[in-house]
Amino acid sequence: MAGGRPRSFDSDVALDRALEVFWRQGYEGTAISDLTKAMGINNAPSLYNAFGSKEQLFVKVLDRYAEGPARYIREAFDQPTARAAVEALLHGAADATTDPGHPRGCITVQGGLACSPGAETARDELTARRAAGEAALRERLQRAGAEGEIPASADPERLARYFSAIYQGIAVQAAGGATREQLHEVVDMAMTVWPQQPAA
């Protein structure tokens, strides 16, 4: 007897389609039937065989998001200075969250803010990813302090929390209809609090 039928879909394309659905509708607002239809998969068992549970698929989608639409985050941290990194992060968010080729906003900010107890796994995953982003920013600012880029009086933890709040706020504002130009203006205003070394 012949083995199982080969998959009739491209996994990368299917993940991209699942990303779009989760991004637009949020974790809990997305039904398995929405996913199978968008991904070109015949039925729920076929989806589970290919990608695991809804929760497992969501994690794969978040990884896909990080490597695709949100790759600007990783690129921002490659900037030579902490200030350039923060500027690249925030301006990158303004561009990405208003990209006409994708749903507005950010899946990691909006994907699971309001969840029932049954969706706690997804909410916790998103919370952990946002916390990891803030921790990476805090570490970069701590290095900036150690290297003398920012004054010793500057508090990396408070700065990281502030810029993370701006970053997440950009996503919320974008989802609410703010224009790209308006969000870049927000970034420029936010950067005015950047701590300056005292004049010699």
Shape: elongated
> Could you list the spans in which at least 5 consecutive residues all have pLDDT below 50?
1-6
Structural class by SSE content: mainly alpha
The mean pLDDT is 91
Termini distance? 82 Å
Number of helices: 10
Strand content: under 5%
Q: Helix and strand string, N-terminal first?
A: HHHHHHHHHH
As a whole number of angstroms, the C-alpha radius of gyration is: 20 Å
Task: Tell me about the largest β-sheet.
Answer: none
- The residue fraction in helices comes out at 55-70%
Task: Count every beta strand, where a strand is a DSSP E run of 2 or more residues.
Answer: 0
Explain what the structure shows.
This protein is mostly helical and 200 residues long. It is 64% helix and 0% strand. The protein has ten helices and no strands. Helix 1 (11-25) crosses helix 4 (54-67), helix 6 packs antiparallel against helix 10 (180-190) and helix 8 packs across helix 9. The longest helix is centred in the middle third of the chain and has 27 residues, at 120-146. It is elongated and about 65 Å long. The chain starts with 10 loop residues before the first helix and ends in a 10-residue tail after the last helix. Mean pLDDT is 91; it is low at 1-6.
What attributes characterize this protein structure?
single chain, 200 residues, mainly alpha
Report a brief summary of the structure.
The chain has 200 residues and is mostly helical. It has helices at residues 11-25, 32-39, 44-51, 54-67, 71-76, 82-96, 107-110, 120-146, 156-175, 180-190.
